[in-house]
Write a structure and sequence with these properties.
Oligomer: single chain
Order of helices and strands: HHEHEHEEHEHHHHHHHHHHH
Largest sheet: 5 strands, mixed
Strand content: 5-15%
Helix content: 55-70%
């Protein structure tokens, strides 16, 4: 009888907690849907720029799920640099010169396999045909850890800063500290800025340690400047920090704060740009901070680009942080109008 009463109490409690019920049903469905598209994307087409090749070779590429761009040498190189193509092929004087964008290892494997299959029929006619492969970015046989390195650094920092900042701000609110602050003449923007800077000192240390450990201890591929990596992950930390504070305003306890993780944090992994999601899911990528963080880290760590190349990504990431700060200031009106 007591077990029955306890069971009914739990069910009644859950019935009134609409957020938990929705999370238990919708979050797994969202995860499964995204995984479905990610795994299906592994068989999607890749883009290869062809400078010079017989029509039969091009037809063989297209029959192997390849979208072919017919470019000259300069256009093909530009396509690789901008990410428009994952490989370029130029068959000249009995050799197939293949240039690869190694910053996309998952697509590289598909491109190389398609190129090999396209050359097989030609090998029966021309036994002297040889291939030379050059890597514009990255290198051959990249370790799996390096493939996801940019994503891992960005995501791990984002995850822990979001969680710790959100729970800490929630404890400040539930413990009455925020209420005491609001009873003073302090402005709303001063409160938000104070919390951001206070937690920000810790996130600076965390970002430095994680980045240094991954690059210099775990030997993650690093072709660019370490200070630029620090710049990117620090701004990423600010986004996670301000978003964590924002999420905590909608939570009443630590459990509700954790509920935001499978909705706000984890889906960003699928929208980071490493996976070829179909339309319209690929449009969502441009709406999540981790997409720009991963892109900027890839430009620095794998492509060895400088500050000029990452300015657009850094500007967007900073914009996310600024928007979240402004929203936090606005939401403090619910406690006091200052």
């Amino acid at each position: 009888m007591r077990v029955k009463a306890l069971t009914l109490r739990i069910l009644t409690q859950l019935r009134h907690d609409k957020r938990t019920l929705a999370l238990m049903v919708m979050a797994p469905l969202l995860m499964l849907t995204l995984l479905y598209f990610v795994f299906n994307a592994m068989g999607s087409s890749v883009t290869i720029a062809v400078v010079n090749a017989p029509e039969s070779y091009i037809s063989n590429l297209e029959s192997n799920n390849v979208f072919v761009l017919r470019y000259d040498a300069a256009e093909a190189r530009r396509a690789l640099e901008t990410g428009e193509a994952v490989a370029s092929v130029d068959i000249t004087s009995g050799k197939a010169y293949i240039e690869i964008d190694g910053s996309k290892p998952l697509d590289v494997n598909k491109a190389l396999m398609a190129i090999e299959l396209a050359q097989k029929p030609m090998g029966q006619v021309r036994n002297d045909l040889r291939s030379e492969v050059f890597y514009l970015y990255g290198y051959e046989d990249v370790p799996t850890f390096d493939i996801y390195g940019a994503l891992l650094i960005g995501f791990i920092i984002f995850f822990f800063v979001f969680l710790v900042a959100g729970i800490s701000f929630l404890q400040e609110r539930n413990g009455g500290t925020l209420e005491k602050l609001l009873s003073t003449p302090i402005k709303r923007w001063e409160i938000v800025l104070g919390y951001v800077l206070g937690f920000g000192v810790v996130t600076v240390l965390q970002a430095f340690v994680i980045s240094w450990f991954c690059i210099y201890v775990l030997n993650m591929v690093m072709a660019g400047s370490f200070p630029l990596v620090l710049l990117i992950v620090l701004i990423n930390s600010m986004v996670a920090l301000t978003l964590g504070i924002l999420a905590s305003t909608a939570a009443n306890n630590e459990f509700q704060m954790i509920q935001f993780i499978p909705v706000v944090v984890i889906p960003q992994v699928f929208f980071c740009g490493l996976f070829n999601l179909p339309h319209p899911w690929n449009l969502v990528e441009k709406l999540v901070p981790l997409y720009y963080v991963t892109d900027a880290l890839t430009l620095v760590m794998i492509k060895g680009q400088g500050l000029k190349a990452i300015i657009p990504d850094v500007a967007v990431i900073s914009g996310f942080a600024l928007v979240f700060v402004l929203v936090n200031i606005r939401l403090l009106k619910r406690y006091r109008s200052i």
